[in-house]
Design a protein that fits this description.
Number of strands: 0
Radius of gyration: 11 Å
Number of domains: 1
Oligomer: single chain
Order of helices and strands: HHH
Shape: globular
Strand content: under 5%
Number of helices: 3
Length: 58
């Protein structure tokens, strides 16, 4: 069982961006993009560590 599912981390990233719409949060936007890709790939119930797989070099 994941300690924190990627789909919930994605939800939180979206909340951060919505709440701070006037701040420069490029890192949060990049994180959200990678989490969205993981969720879209069917890995939303995996631990948010799937983010590492999305950004590590091959």
């Amino acid at each position: 069982m994941p300690s924190f599912p990627a789909r919930l981390a994605l939800k939180d990233a979206k909340l951060v961006l919505d709440a701070a719409s006037d701040a420069d949060l490029a890192g949060a936007r990049a994180t959200m993009t990678h989490l969205q890709a993981a969720v879209d790939a069917g890995r939303g119930d995996d631990d948010m560590a799937v983010l590492f797989a999305a950004v590590r070099p091959n």
